[in-house]
Automatic annotation (TrEMBL), chain A:
PANTHER family: NADH-QUINONE OXIDOREDUCTASE SUBUNIT F (PTHR43578)
Gene name tied to this protein: nuoF
Origin: domain of life: Bacteria
Name of the featured protein: NADH-quinone oxidoreductase subunit NuoF
Gene3D superfamilies tied to this protein: 3.10.20.600, 6.10.250.1450, Glutaredoxin, NADH-ubiquinone oxidoreductase 51kDa subunit, NADH-ubiquinone oxidoreductase 51kDa subunit, iron-sulphur binding domain
TrEMBL record, chain B:
Protein name: NADH-quinone oxidoreductase subunit NuoE
Keyword Magnesium: no
Similarity remark: Belongs to the complex I 24 kDa subunit family.
EC number, as in UniProt: 1.6.5.11
Amino acid sequence: MFYRAHVLVEMTSGSVALGAAQVKEQFEREIARVGLENEVKVLETGSFGAALPSPFVVVYPDNVIYAPVNVRDVRRIVEEHLLKGRVVRELLFAGEWGGGVATFIPPSPLKKEKRIVLRNSGLIDPLNIEDYIARDGYLALAKVLTEMTPEEVIEVVKRSGLQGRGGAGFPTGLKWEFTRKADGEEKYIVCNADEGEPGTFKDRLILEGDPHSVLEAMAIAGYAVGARMGYIYVRAEYPQSIRHLEVAIAQAKERGLLGERILGTSFSFDVKIRRGAGAYVCGEETALLESIEGKRGEPRVKPPYPPQKGLWGKPTVINNVETLANIPPIILNGPDWFRSIGTPTCPGTKVFTLTGNVNNLGLVEVPMGITLRELVFDIGGGVRGGYGLKLVQTGGPSGGTMTPDLLDVPMAFDTLPRYNSALGSGALTVIDDTHCIVDIVRNFAEFFLHESCGKCTPCRVGGKRIVDILERISAGAGSPEDLEKLRYLGQHMKVTAFCGLGQAAPNPLLRCLEFFKEEFEVHVREKHCPQGVCTMRPKPQPKKTVRV
Amino acid sequence: MNTPFVYQDVEEILSRYEKEETPLLCVLEDIQEKWGYLPRDVLGYVARRLGIPSSTVYGVATFYAFLEVRPVGKYVIRVCKSTPCHVRGATNVLEALKRELGIREGETTKDGRFTLEVTSCLGVCGVAPAMMVNDVTYGNLTEERIREILALYRE
């Protein structure tokens, strides 16, 4: 059936949390009420990022954007725009596009934006495979299966310089090559969608907005390394991602794009979903494997690394969602195209998620090497309420702490470590200067205490002691020696903890102790919180504590 | 709980994962979905059926934040306390919920309707502060919005 118009409603966990599902239902009701149900179709779409307030609605083919839309606005849009063809000017999105009627594509709402991973998000219906196919979906898989050897595929990925987007930045092509060369008949592809780093939700929006791009990439990876089976490990907090993946897998199988003898070739590949159950540590790749194996998600000793011994002891590729979503465009456009974006040592784009005290919240995909200033002030619209910038936490609590003096550092995997920071998952949590550093650091520390799996002592006990001391300081009972103890604990945890979680946990603490030294000292010497956040009222001491 | 009827249901769940090498976590998740928590004798039954020590099964059941070994309310409210929510007022959200429900975190209301829990990042930082009620997410929370949301579940 042909429709004269389509109404796209943003349906992501974030927009649904603001009532997008009701907006969609209201559109369907109102359209039926005015008798347009055979002329206008309502569709779901993914996020368009920080540029558009949620939930947004696009009317095609007019390319008109309304944002944000609430249930009460729906009747007017249907009666005026869809029935009478008059744009409802008051409800139009009035962002970067200025006063006129907002058009969707082109131009991109943000001049600095470059969408590779999010090429389809917000433009297609993620629940309809034909939308994906219409935008060159599964073309890369077809090309790989009919024109390339597995070695050639690995060579293309290696030459592209793609690095793992989960946070560590390990070269993806090398990972694939190690797994291909490892002994063993059975091999696995695992997609890490256990995105637990606070402030990160890029993988959710990729899975919600364009699930097929990840499935296609997993099949390509399977062909390249010689695997027939893939698992996507999705965190329990993302029921909508799981739902979209289930639909996408079923549709792909129906059309012979997953399953036995894909596209009539001899290659078979199947994908299964594994749901997490609320454990941050399972984002660590070996803990994730343990969890798929139905055990407690405690990390394994490395080496051996997963490409040698992974899932059920078999060679395994573990790639992040965003990493995989880069693969089809790299295959179609070639490694040189990918290398032309970003920096010479860190090619491609990165999806950043802007969170915290910033005006425009949401995700944005930009070339690697962009500065923090451009991200926070140009794209993010600056600090909310006109306050000053205290710090930006990059890559969540386990990433790096960027203080205002580092605003002009280019953001890439290889540049930030020079400043004791890290790009990590791309989360950017902006914190304004009304916040107290002791309170913020305590919030990070409580997170790690809660999420420590308990396997090793430095993380389990060290994390607890750090929280105790910070609580004492914010209750006005701290002493200058406490700051020394924090430093000592932090440094020891960093070098002795078993896995990345415990090793990264003290990073923000150590950096803030150094940069915000004075603020900490005021707390312990004058028993005063300059921001008035800490209670500074001592609580009765617990009966027994472990001595450090 | 201890009726053959219940074990038929458990058997049905076990049969879903017959072909899986290591089905434990999937089985526990499905049991929880059915009963809202993991009753102790069901855990023992699963251990025997899968040939896994019951200590291991209990270890897995208590490791994951979304698995409950004690009965919980009909609606589990999980309030995010991670930094992006924290700097946008998550503490006020938690206080408002405690006040409205008359319970502290980790507790269940007397009528068995609500359990209040604090959780790590829910991944909806774009609408912080946020919370989940069972598997529905709510964002941009204010005291007023919390009252409206609770009213939906009180009916």
